[in-house]
Protein backbone atom coordinates (compact mmCIF):
# COMPACT_ATOMS: atom_id res chain seq x y z
CA UNK A 1 0.00 0.00 0.00
CA UNK A 2 1.32 3.41 -0.99
CA UNK A 3 1.01 5.93 1.80
CA UNK A 4 0.53 9.51 0.66
CA UNK A 5 2.62 12.24 2.26
CA UNK A 6 0.99 14.95 4.34
CA UNK A 7 1.58 17.53 1.63
CA UNK A 8 0.05 15.27 -1.04
CA UNK A 9 -3.06 14.81 1.10
CA UNK A 10 -3.23 18.55 1.81
CA UNK A 11 -2.99 19.37 -1.91
CA UNK A 12 -6.02 17.18 -2.61
CA UNK A 13 -8.13 19.01 -0.02
CA UNK A 14 -11.39 20.47 -1.25
CA UNK A 15 -11.18 23.70 0.70
CA UNK A 16 -14.17 25.98 1.11
CA UNK A 17 -13.82 29.74 0.61
CA UNK A 18 -12.82 31.20 3.96
CA UNK A 19 -15.83 33.53 3.96
CA UNK A 20 -18.02 30.42 3.90
CA UNK A 21 -16.12 28.92 6.85
CA UNK A 22 -16.62 32.18 8.73
CA UNK A 23 -20.31 32.26 7.85
CA UNK A 24 -20.70 28.81 9.43
CA UNK A 25 -19.55 30.44 12.69
CA UNK A 26 -21.80 33.45 12.21
CA UNK A 27 -18.96 35.85 11.37
CA UNK A 28 -20.16 38.49 8.86
CA UNK A 29 -18.11 38.80 5.67
CA UNK A 30 -17.23 42.41 6.49
CA UNK A 31 -15.56 41.24 9.73
CA UNK A 32 -13.22 38.84 7.94
CA UNK A 33 -10.07 40.23 6.31
CA UNK A 34 -9.18 37.67 3.60
CA UNK A 35 -5.59 36.73 2.88
CA UNK A 36 -6.34 34.99 -0.39
CA UNK A 37 -9.30 32.62 -0.70
CA UNK A 38 -8.58 30.21 2.16
CA UNK A 39 -7.37 32.22 5.14
CA UNK A 40 -8.52 35.38 6.89
CA UNK A 41 -8.16 37.49 9.98
CA UNK A 42 -11.10 38.23 12.28
CA UNK A 43 -11.43 41.93 13.05
CA UNK A 44 -10.98 43.17 16.61
CA UNK A 45 -14.17 45.21 16.32
CA UNK A 46 -16.17 42.03 15.72
CA UNK A 47 -14.44 40.26 18.61
CA UNK A 48 -15.49 43.11 20.91
CA UNK A 49 -19.16 42.40 20.07
CA UNK A 50 -18.85 38.84 21.44
CA UNK A 51 -18.05 39.84 25.03
CA UNK A 52 -21.50 39.07 26.44
CA UNK A 53 -21.81 35.65 24.79
CA UNK A 54 -21.49 32.51 26.91
CA UNK A 55 -18.20 30.59 26.68
CA UNK A 56 -18.02 27.06 25.30
CA UNK A 57 -16.01 24.24 26.88
CA UNK A 58 -12.21 24.43 26.65
CA UNK A 59 -10.37 21.16 26.02
CA UNK A 60 -6.58 20.91 26.21
CA UNK A 61 -4.60 18.38 24.20
CA UNK A 62 -1.16 17.61 25.63
CA UNK A 63 1.22 14.65 25.48
CA UNK A 64 3.85 12.45 27.02
CA UNK A 65 7.48 13.59 26.74
CA UNK A 66 8.31 13.69 23.03
CA UNK A 67 10.71 11.23 21.42
CA UNK A 68 12.10 10.81 17.89
CA UNK A 69 9.35 8.19 17.40
CA UNK A 70 6.69 10.91 17.27
CA UNK A 71 3.52 11.53 19.27
CA UNK A 72 1.25 13.50 16.91
CA UNK A 73 -0.19 16.05 19.33
CA UNK A 74 -1.24 18.58 16.66
CA UNK A 75 -2.61 15.77 14.50
CA UNK A 76 -4.67 14.53 17.45
CA UNK A 77 -5.89 18.04 18.26
CA UNK A 78 -7.19 18.44 14.70
CA UNK A 79 -8.59 14.90 14.70
CA UNK A 80 -10.46 15.48 17.96
CA UNK A 81 -11.88 18.76 16.68
CA UNK A 82 -13.12 17.03 13.55
CA UNK A 83 -14.43 14.14 15.67
CA UNK A 84 -16.48 16.47 17.87
CA UNK A 85 -18.01 18.05 14.78
CA UNK A 86 -18.73 14.59 13.35
CA UNK A 87 -20.74 13.57 16.43
CA UNK A 88 -22.85 16.73 16.10
CA UNK A 89 -21.00 19.16 18.36
CA UNK A 90 -20.04 22.68 17.29
CA UNK A 91 -16.27 22.66 17.74
CA UNK A 92 -13.33 24.86 16.78
CA UNK A 93 -9.64 23.96 16.83
CA UNK A 94 -7.22 26.59 18.22
CA UNK A 95 -3.53 26.07 17.42
CA UNK A 96 -0.22 27.90 17.32
CA UNK A 97 1.44 29.04 14.11
CA UNK A 98 4.52 27.05 13.06
CA UNK A 99 7.94 28.70 13.20
CA UNK A 100 10.15 28.76 10.10
CA UNK A 101 13.13 27.64 12.19
CA UNK A 102 11.81 24.14 13.02
CA UNK A 103 10.12 23.84 9.60
CA UNK A 104 13.50 24.13 7.89
CA UNK A 105 15.26 22.37 10.76
CA UNK A 106 13.87 19.10 12.13
CA UNK A 107 10.08 19.21 11.79
CA UNK A 108 9.52 20.07 8.14
CA UNK A 109 6.06 21.39 9.06
CA UNK A 110 3.57 21.60 11.92
CA UNK A 111 0.01 21.62 10.63
CA UNK A 112 -1.09 18.14 11.67
CA UNK A 113 -0.70 15.04 9.55
CA UNK A 114 -2.44 12.50 7.34
CA UNK A 115 -6.18 13.12 7.23
CA UNK A 116 -6.11 15.29 10.35
CA UNK A 117 -4.57 18.51 9.08
CA UNK A 118 -5.28 22.20 8.89
CA UNK A 119 -5.06 23.79 5.45
CA UNK A 120 -3.70 25.54 3.42
CA UNK A 121 -0.78 23.56 4.81
CA UNK A 122 2.01 25.22 2.79
CA UNK A 123 0.89 28.74 3.67
CA UNK A 124 0.45 27.96 7.37
CA UNK A 125 3.96 26.49 7.56
CA UNK A 126 5.61 29.36 5.72
CA UNK A 127 4.75 33.08 5.75
CA UNK A 128 1.01 32.60 6.49
CA UNK A 129 -0.49 36.05 7.21
CA UNK A 130 2.80 37.68 8.17
CA UNK A 131 2.33 37.61 11.95
CA UNK A 132 5.83 36.36 12.71
CA UNK A 133 7.37 38.92 10.38
CA UNK A 134 5.47 41.68 12.21
CA UNK A 135 6.61 40.36 15.60
CA UNK A 136 10.22 40.14 14.40
CA UNK A 137 10.07 43.68 13.01
CA UNK A 138 8.50 45.13 16.17
CA UNK A 139 11.03 43.39 18.40
CA UNK A 140 14.00 44.58 16.32
CA UNK A 141 12.60 48.10 16.08
CA UNK A 142 12.93 48.31 19.85
CA UNK A 143 16.47 46.90 19.58
CA UNK A 144 17.39 49.56 17.02
CA UNK A 145 15.86 52.35 19.10
CA UNK A 146 17.83 51.26 22.18
CA UNK A 147 21.16 51.42 20.37
CA UNK A 148 20.11 54.63 18.64
CA UNK A 149 19.32 56.23 22.02
CA UNK A 150 22.75 55.23 23.32
CA UNK A 151 24.43 56.58 20.15
CA UNK A 152 22.78 59.99 20.46
CA UNK A 153 24.00 60.68 23.97
CA UNK A 154 22.28 58.10 26.19
CA UNK A 155 20.14 60.60 28.12
CA UNK A 156 18.62 57.74 30.13
CA UNK A 157 22.03 56.62 31.37
CA UNK A 158 21.63 53.03 30.16
CA UNK A 159 24.53 50.84 31.24
CA UNK A 160 25.59 49.28 27.92
CA UNK A 161 26.84 46.24 29.86
CA UNK A 162 23.32 45.66 31.13
CA UNK A 163 21.16 45.93 28.00
CA UNK A 164 18.77 42.99 28.45
CA UNK A 165 16.95 43.27 25.11
CA UNK A 166 18.40 40.95 22.46
CA UNK A 167 17.52 40.74 18.77
CA UNK A 168 15.44 38.01 17.09
CA UNK A 169 14.92 36.23 13.79
CA UNK A 170 12.58 33.40 12.82
CA UNK A 171 15.26 30.91 11.86
CA UNK A 172 17.56 28.46 13.62
CA UNK A 173 21.04 30.02 13.51
CA UNK A 174 23.50 29.07 16.23
CA UNK A 175 26.12 31.52 14.87
CA UNK A 176 24.02 34.43 16.14
CA UNK A 177 23.54 33.29 19.74
CA UNK A 178 26.27 35.59 21.00
CA UNK A 179 27.55 38.54 18.94
CA UNK A 180 29.38 41.84 19.30
CA UNK A 181 27.46 44.66 17.65
CA UNK A 182 28.26 48.25 16.64
CA UNK A 183 31.76 47.44 15.42
CA UNK A 184 33.39 49.54 12.69
CA UNK A 185 34.18 52.86 14.26
CA UNK A 186 32.52 55.97 15.70
CA UNK A 187 29.77 56.17 13.08
CA UNK A 188 28.40 52.75 14.06
CA UNK A 189 27.96 53.40 17.77
CA UNK A 190 29.42 51.89 20.92
CA UNK A 191 30.50 48.23 20.62
CA UNK A 192 28.83 45.88 23.09
CA UNK A 193 27.99 42.22 23.52
CA UNK A 194 24.56 41.21 22.25
CA UNK A 195 22.84 38.20 20.68
CA UNK A 196 19.86 36.76 18.86
CA UNK A 197 17.01 34.56 20.01
CA UNK A 198 14.53 32.85 17.70
CA UNK A 199 11.36 34.93 17.15
CA UNK A 200 9.17 32.42 18.96
CA UNK A 201 11.28 33.06 22.10
CA UNK A 202 10.71 36.83 21.82
CA UNK A 203 8.91 38.57 24.66
CA UNK A 204 6.90 40.33 21.94
CA UNK A 205 5.58 36.93 20.84
CA UNK A 206 4.59 36.12 24.43
CA UNK A 207 3.02 39.57 24.85
CA UNK A 208 1.00 39.28 21.64
CA UNK A 209 -0.27 35.86 22.72
CA UNK A 210 -1.32 37.07 26.18
CA UNK A 211 -2.81 40.46 25.18
CA UNK A 212 -6.57 40.93 25.17
CA UNK A 213 -6.77 44.20 23.17
CA UNK A 214 -4.69 46.82 21.40
CA UNK A 215 -4.69 48.84 24.63
CA UNK A 216 -3.46 45.85 26.62
CA UNK A 217 -0.81 45.17 23.98
CA UNK A 218 0.54 48.73 24.28
CA UNK A 219 0.44 48.58 28.09
CA UNK A 220 2.49 45.41 28.11
CA UNK A 221 5.04 46.71 25.60
CA UNK A 222 5.53 49.87 27.65
CA UNK A 223 6.41 47.86 30.75
CA UNK A 224 9.14 45.74 29.07
CA UNK A 225 12.43 46.11 30.94
CA UNK A 226 15.02 46.69 28.20
CA UNK A 227 18.04 47.08 30.49
CA UNK A 228 19.43 48.77 33.57
CA UNK A 229 21.31 51.91 34.58
CA UNK A 230 24.63 51.82 36.44
CA UNK A 231 22.74 51.98 39.74
CA UNK A 232 20.86 48.85 38.53
CA UNK A 233 17.52 50.66 38.30
CA UNK A 234 15.41 49.46 35.33
CA UNK A 235 14.90 51.17 31.99
CA UNK A 236 11.57 50.48 30.31
CA UNK A 237 10.41 50.43 26.69
CA UNK A 238 8.20 53.41 27.55
CA UNK A 239 11.39 55.38 28.34
CA UNK A 240 12.63 54.67 24.79
CA UNK A 241 9.23 55.82 23.40
CA UNK A 242 9.00 52.75 21.17
CA UNK A 243 5.57 51.33 22.04
CA UNK A 244 3.47 53.41 19.65
CA UNK A 245 5.44 52.40 16.56
CA UNK A 246 5.63 48.79 17.72
CA UNK A 247 1.85 48.61 18.13
CA UNK A 248 1.45 50.00 14.61
CA UNK A 249 3.54 47.09 13.33
CA UNK A 250 1.53 44.61 15.42
CA UNK A 251 -2.04 45.89 15.00
CA UNK A 252 -2.92 43.38 12.24
CA UNK A 253 -0.93 40.57 13.82
CA UNK A 254 -3.13 40.78 16.95
CA UNK A 255 -6.17 39.73 14.88
CA UNK A 256 -6.69 35.92 15.05
CA UNK A 257 -6.26 33.88 11.85
CA UNK A 258 -9.11 31.68 10.63
CA UNK A 259 -8.44 28.62 8.45
CA UNK A 260 -10.05 25.17 8.15
CA UNK A 261 -9.35 21.48 8.65
CA UNK A 262 -9.38 18.97 5.79
CA UNK A 263 -13.01 18.32 6.75
CA UNK A 264 -13.81 22.04 6.39
CA UNK A 265 -14.24 22.64 10.11
CA UNK A 266 -13.06 26.01 11.45
CA UNK A 267 -9.63 26.42 13.02
CA UNK A 268 -7.95 29.43 14.60
CA UNK A 269 -4.16 29.43 14.14
CA UNK A 270 -2.58 32.35 15.94
CA UNK A 271 0.68 33.03 17.75
CA UNK A 272 3.50 30.60 18.34
CA UNK A 273 5.65 30.86 21.48
CA UNK A 274 7.96 27.86 21.93
CA UNK A 275 7.03 25.56 24.79
CA UNK A 276 10.51 24.74 26.05
CA UNK A 277 11.75 28.36 26.04
CA UNK A 278 8.45 30.27 26.23
CA UNK A 279 4.88 29.49 27.36
CA UNK A 280 3.91 27.38 24.34
CA UNK A 281 0.24 28.30 23.83
CA UNK A 282 -1.71 29.94 21.03
CA UNK A 283 -3.07 33.45 21.63
CA UNK A 284 -5.58 34.37 24.30
CA UNK A 285 -7.41 36.39 21.63
CA UNK A 286 -7.91 33.32 19.44
CA UNK A 287 -8.91 31.06 22.33
CA UNK A 288 -11.38 33.53 23.82
CA UNK A 289 -12.89 34.27 20.40
CA UNK A 290 -13.29 30.57 19.67
CA UNK A 291 -14.96 30.02 23.06
CA UNK A 292 -17.60 32.61 22.14
CA UNK A 293 -18.28 30.99 18.76
CA UNK A 294 -18.37 27.27 19.58
CA UNK A 295 -19.63 24.80 22.15
CA UNK A 296 -16.20 23.14 22.34
CA UNK A 297 -12.73 24.53 21.68
CA UNK A 298 -9.87 22.06 21.27
CA UNK A 299 -6.46 23.61 21.83
CA UNK A 300 -2.96 22.27 22.41
CA UNK A 301 0.05 23.20 24.47
CA UNK A 302 3.53 22.51 23.17
CA UNK A 303 5.64 19.43 23.93
CA UNK A 304 4.88 17.15 26.89
CA UNK A 305 2.51 17.92 29.73
CA UNK A 306 5.42 18.74 32.07
CA UNK A 307 6.11 21.86 29.97
CA UNK A 308 3.12 22.70 27.76
CA UNK A 309 0.24 21.73 30.01
CA UNK A 310 1.87 23.16 33.15
CA UNK A 311 2.40 26.52 31.42
CA UNK A 312 -1.08 26.42 29.87
CA UNK A 313 -2.60 25.98 33.32
CA UNK A 314 -0.25 28.10 35.43
CA UNK A 315 0.35 30.96 32.97
CA UNK A 316 -2.28 31.18 30.23
CA UNK A 317 -5.35 30.05 32.18
CA UNK A 318 -4.30 32.02 35.27
CA UNK A 319 -3.66 35.26 33.34
CA UNK A 320 -6.67 34.97 31.00
CA UNK A 321 -9.18 33.66 33.54
CA UNK A 322 -9.78 30.46 31.56
CA UNK A 323 -11.20 27.28 33.09
CA UNK A 324 -10.36 24.15 31.08
CA UNK A 325 -13.15 21.57 31.14
CA UNK A 326 -11.09 18.50 30.16
CA UNK A 327 -7.67 17.41 28.93
CA UNK A 328 -6.39 14.72 26.58
CA UNK A 329 -2.91 13.21 26.86
CA UNK A 330 -1.55 11.91 23.55
CA UNK A 331 0.68 8.83 23.60
CA UNK A 332 1.95 6.40 21.02
CA UNK A 333 3.03 2.80 21.37
CA UNK A 334 6.28 3.71 19.62
CA UNK A 335 7.17 6.59 21.92
CA UNK A 336 6.35 4.63 25.08
CA UNK A 337 8.56 1.78 23.87
CA UNK A 338 11.38 4.30 23.48
CA UNK A 339 10.75 5.44 27.05
CA UNK A 340 11.05 1.75 27.92
CA UNK A 341 14.51 1.54 26.38
CA UNK A 342 13.85 0.37 22.80
CA UNK A 343 16.05 1.85 20.06
CA UNK A 344 14.30 3.71 17.23
CA UNK A 345 15.28 1.10 14.63
CA UNK A 346 13.59 -1.64 16.67
CA UNK A 347 10.25 0.07 17.26
CA UNK A 348 8.37 -1.89 14.58
CA UNK A 349 8.78 -5.12 16.56
CA UNK A 350 6.19 -5.94 19.19
CA UNK A 351 7.70 -5.48 22.66
CA UNK A 352 5.10 -5.63 25.40
CA UNK A 353 7.60 -5.65 28.26
CA UNK A 354 9.38 -2.49 27.08
CA UNK A 355 6.01 -0.86 26.57
CA UNK A 356 4.95 -1.67 30.12
CA UNK A 357 8.20 -0.15 31.37
CA UNK A 358 7.72 2.96 29.20
CA UNK A 359 4.18 3.47 30.47
CA UNK A 360 5.79 4.93 33.59
CA UNK A 361 6.21 8.16 31.61
CA UNK A 362 2.50 8.25 30.78
CA UNK A 363 1.64 7.39 34.38
CA UNK A 364 3.68 10.32 35.68
CA UNK A 365 1.81 12.71 33.38
CA UNK A 366 -1.55 11.27 34.43
CA UNK A 367 -0.71 11.81 38.10
CA UNK A 368 0.53 15.34 37.41
CA UNK A 369 -2.53 16.36 35.42
CA UNK A 370 -4.86 15.23 38.18
CA UNK A 371 -3.18 17.76 40.48
CA UNK A 372 -4.74 20.55 38.41
CA UNK A 373 -8.27 19.19 38.95
CA UNK A 374 -9.04 18.65 35.26
CA UNK A 375 -10.64 15.37 34.05
CA UNK A 376 -8.41 13.42 31.64
CA UNK A 377 -8.62 10.99 28.74
CA UNK A 378 -5.78 9.36 26.79
CA UNK A 379 -5.54 9.25 23.00
CA UNK A 380 -3.38 6.42 21.66
CA UNK A 381 -2.33 7.86 18.31
CA UNK A 382 -2.22 4.71 16.19
CA UNK A 383 0.62 3.66 13.90
CA UNK A 384 0.19 0.76 11.44
CA UNK A 385 3.00 -1.17 13.19
CA UNK A 386 1.16 -1.14 16.54
CA UNK A 387 -0.24 -4.50 17.62
CA UNK A 388 -3.54 -5.02 19.42
CA UNK A 389 -1.65 -6.50 22.36
CA UNK A 390 0.39 -3.30 22.70
CA UNK A 391 -2.64 -1.02 22.51
CA UNK A 392 -4.38 -3.19 25.11
CA UNK A 393 -1.40 -2.71 27.48
CA UNK A 394 -1.89 1.06 27.38
CA UNK A 395 -5.64 0.78 27.84
CA UNK A 396 -5.21 -1.50 30.85
CA UNK A 397 -2.52 0.75 32.33
CA UNK A 398 -4.77 3.81 32.04
CA UNK A 399 -7.71 1.94 33.55
CA UNK A 400 -5.57 1.24 36.63
CA UNK A 401 -5.16 5.03 36.90
CA UNK A 402 -8.90 5.61 36.56
CA UNK A 403 -8.61 7.02 33.04
CA UNK A 404 -10.08 5.82 29.73
CA UNK A 405 -7.71 5.37 26.77
CA UNK A 406 -8.85 5.24 23.16
CA UNK A 407 -7.19 3.87 20.04
CA UNK A 408 -7.33 6.80 17.60
CA UNK A 409 -6.92 6.34 13.84
CA UNK A 410 -7.46 9.94 12.74
CA UNK A 411 -4.19 10.07 10.79
CA UNK A 412 -5.56 7.42 8.41
CA UNK A 413 -9.33 7.98 8.76
CA UNK A 414 -9.89 11.58 9.83
CA UNK A 415 -12.83 12.21 12.17
CA UNK A 416 -14.02 8.62 11.92
CA UNK A 417 -10.94 7.63 13.89
CA UNK A 418 -11.73 9.85 16.89
CA UNK A 419 -15.51 9.43 17.33
CA UNK A 420 -15.20 7.33 20.49
CA UNK A 421 -12.65 9.72 22.01
CA UNK A 422 -14.77 12.75 21.07
CA UNK A 423 -17.88 11.26 22.68
CA UNK A 424 -16.01 10.52 25.91
CA UNK A 425 -14.27 13.92 26.03
CA UNK A 426 -17.59 15.72 25.52
CA UNK A 427 -19.03 13.76 28.45
CA UNK A 428 -16.03 14.66 30.63
CA UNK A 429 -16.29 18.32 29.66
CA UNK A 430 -19.98 18.47 30.53
CA UNK A 431 -19.29 17.16 34.03
CA UNK A 432 -17.03 20.14 34.65
CA UNK A 433 -13.62 20.43 36.30
CA UNK A 434 -12.19 21.53 39.62
CA UNK A 435 -9.37 23.42 37.94
CA UNK A 436 -6.76 25.21 40.00
CA UNK A 437 -3.16 26.26 39.26
CA UNK A 438 -0.47 24.31 41.08
CA UNK A 439 0.87 27.31 43.03
CA UNK A 440 -0.54 30.60 44.30
CA UNK A 441 0.36 34.12 43.20
CA UNK A 442 1.71 35.03 46.63
CA UNK A 443 4.31 32.26 46.85
CA UNK A 444 7.90 33.61 46.55
CA UNK A 445 9.40 33.22 43.07
CA UNK A 446 12.05 30.70 44.12
CA UNK A 447 9.40 28.61 45.88
CA UNK A 448 7.22 28.67 42.75
CA UNK A 449 10.10 27.14 40.79
CA UNK A 450 10.66 24.58 43.55
CA UNK A 451 6.95 23.66 43.53
CA UNK A 452 7.03 22.99 39.77
CA UNK A 453 10.24 20.98 40.10
CA UNK A 454 8.95 18.83 42.93
CA UNK A 455 5.31 18.42 41.93
CA UNK A 456 5.70 18.10 38.13
CA UNK A 457 9.31 17.00 37.48
CA UNK A 458 9.47 14.98 40.75
CA UNK A 459 12.87 16.46 41.53
CA UNK A 460 14.29 16.30 45.02
CA UNK A 461 15.09 20.00 44.84
CA UNK A 462 16.36 22.91 42.75
CA UNK A 463 19.78 24.52 42.93
CA UNK A 464 20.84 28.03 41.92
CA UNK A 465 23.80 30.33 42.41
CA UNK A 466 23.45 33.16 44.90
CA UNK A 467 23.30 35.62 42.00
CA UNK A 468 20.13 33.92 40.69
CA UNK A 469 18.50 33.88 44.13
CA UNK A 470 19.40 37.54 44.66
CA UNK A 471 18.00 38.46 41.24
CA UNK A 472 14.65 36.85 42.07
CA UNK A 473 14.54 38.71 45.40
CA UNK A 474 15.31 41.98 43.61
CA UNK A 475 12.43 41.41 41.19
CA UNK A 476 10.13 40.67 44.13
CA UNK A 477 11.14 43.99 45.66
CA UNK A 478 10.35 45.68 42.33
CA UNK A 479 6.78 44.33 42.44
CA UNK A 480 7.15 41.29 40.19
CA UNK A 481 6.74 38.68 42.90
CA UNK A 482 3.22 37.72 41.84
CA UNK A 483 4.33 36.74 38.33
CA UNK A 484 4.04 33.06 37.33
CA UNK A 485 7.08 31.03 36.30
CA UNK A 486 7.94 29.98 32.75
CA UNK A 487 10.52 27.18 32.97
CA UNK A 488 12.84 26.74 29.99
CA UNK A 489 14.21 23.21 29.92
CA UNK A 490 14.56 20.20 27.66
CA UNK A 491 11.26 18.78 26.43
CA UNK A 492 12.60 15.23 26.23
CA UNK A 493 12.75 14.40 29.92
CA UNK A 494 11.28 15.29 33.29
CA UNK A 495 14.87 16.16 34.21
CA UNK A 496 17.25 18.63 32.57
CA UNK A 497 19.07 15.70 30.90
CA UNK A 498 17.35 14.91 27.58
CA UNK A 499 18.68 11.34 27.67
CA UNK A 500 16.85 10.36 30.88
CA UNK A 501 13.62 8.81 29.57
CA UNK A 502 10.71 7.31 31.45
CA UNK A 503 9.87 8.71 34.88
CA UNK A 504 13.15 9.47 36.68
CA UNK A 505 13.27 10.41 40.36
CA UNK A 506 15.96 11.60 42.81
CA UNK A 507 17.25 14.28 40.47
CA UNK A 508 18.02 17.96 41.04
CA UNK A 509 17.01 20.79 38.69
CA UNK A 510 19.78 23.39 38.23
CA UNK A 511 18.72 26.97 37.47
CA UNK A 512 21.29 28.43 35.09
CA UNK A 513 19.75 31.85 34.44
CA UNK A 514 16.59 33.87 35.07
CA UNK A 515 15.06 36.49 32.77
CA UNK A 516 12.36 39.03 33.54
CA UNK A 517 9.53 39.29 31.02
CA UNK A 518 7.80 42.30 32.57
CA UNK A 519 5.54 42.84 29.55
CA UNK A 520 4.46 39.22 29.26
CA UNK A 521 4.20 39.24 33.06
CA UNK A 522 6.13 36.09 33.84
CA UNK A 523 9.64 35.09 34.94
CA UNK A 524 11.66 32.85 32.59
CA UNK A 525 13.77 30.31 34.48
CA UNK A 526 16.38 28.65 32.27
CA UNK A 527 17.38 25.19 33.46
CA UNK A 528 20.13 22.98 32.10
CA UNK A 529 21.56 23.46 28.62
CA UNK A 530 18.48 24.88 26.93
CA UNK A 531 19.06 27.32 24.05
CA UNK A 532 16.87 30.32 23.22
CA UNK A 533 18.30 30.23 19.69
CA UNK A 534 18.26 26.67 18.30
CA UNK A 535 20.71 25.41 15.71
CA UNK A 536 19.98 23.41 12.58
CA UNK A 537 20.55 19.62 12.73
CA UNK A 538 23.32 17.95 10.72
CA UNK A 539 20.83 17.20 7.94
CA UNK A 540 18.17 19.96 8.09
CA UNK A 541 14.76 19.59 6.44
CA UNK A 542 15.75 22.58 4.28
CA UNK A 543 17.91 20.21 2.20
CA UNK A 544 14.82 18.43 0.83
CA UNK A 545 12.41 21.38 0.56
CA UNK A 546 11.98 22.92 -2.88
CA UNK A 547 9.69 23.36 -5.88
CA UNK A 548 8.81 20.41 -8.12
CA UNK A 549 8.40 20.47 -11.90
CA UNK A 550 4.86 21.83 -11.52
CA UNK A 551 6.03 24.69 -9.33
CA UNK A 552 4.50 23.11 -6.23
CA UNK A 553 6.26 23.07 -2.87
CA UNK A 554 7.81 19.73 -2.05
CA UNK A 555 9.49 18.51 1.13
CA UNK A 556 7.15 19.96 3.74
CA UNK A 557 5.62 17.10 5.71
Question: What does this entry look like structurally?
Answer:
The protein is an alpha/beta fold. The protein folds into 3 domains: 6-24 and 36-129 and 253-431, P-loop containing nucleotide triphosphate hydrolases (Rossmann fold), CATH 3.40.50; 131-250, Domain 2, N(10)-formyltetrahydrofolate synthetase (2-Layer Sandwich), CATH 3.30.1510; 445-527, Formyltetrahydrofolate synthetase, domain 3, CATH 3.10.410.10. The chain is built from 20 helices and 25 strands. Strands 1, 2, 3, 4, 5, 6, 14, 15, 16, 17, 18 and 19 form a 12-stranded mixed beta sheet that branches. Helix 16 links the parallel strand 18 (376-381) and strand 19. The longest helix is centred in the first third of the chain and has 21 residues, at 131-151. It is globular. The protein starts with 5 loop residues before the first helix and ends with a strand.
